[in-house]
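Q: Here's a chain of 150 amino acids. Please give me its 3D structure as tokens.
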Amino acid sequence: MAKKILLGLVAVLLLMQLVPANRPPVKQDNPADLLANNSVPEAVAQILRGACYDCHSNETRYPWYAYVAPVKWLVADHVEEGREHLNFSDWQAMDIGDQLEALDELAEEVEEGEMPLQGYPLVHPEARLSEEQRQLLIDWAGQFADQLLE
């Protein structure tokens, strides 16, 4: 009986692999990208690329587990939702009001520990932000918003 249950579970897992995840596409050429069009300090750019860009840009790096069900559906959903909320690859196409709102929200989410998402740093060590890195992002967001208003 246990053997049949185990075989049934394996069969279900194998069949799950056939259901597509509809991952948002990766695009490396992003002429409206935040980092390509603005003078962002290198330390901030590294944090953004390591902790934010996988979900908040068109330059997502899908790891191996993003191709294995059921995780592949979660990853696709997080990336799609992240890009809808803020896509750094479309930064220059945003109006200044949306940019200011995005910077304010970025600072708030980072300060409250809401970003990066809780599980993301577990498998992405570069997204484990120290308090100093969090403060650097918060300070940069405020300074960059001030620059946009000049």
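Q: Can you summarize the key feature?
A: The chain has a mean pLDDT of 92.
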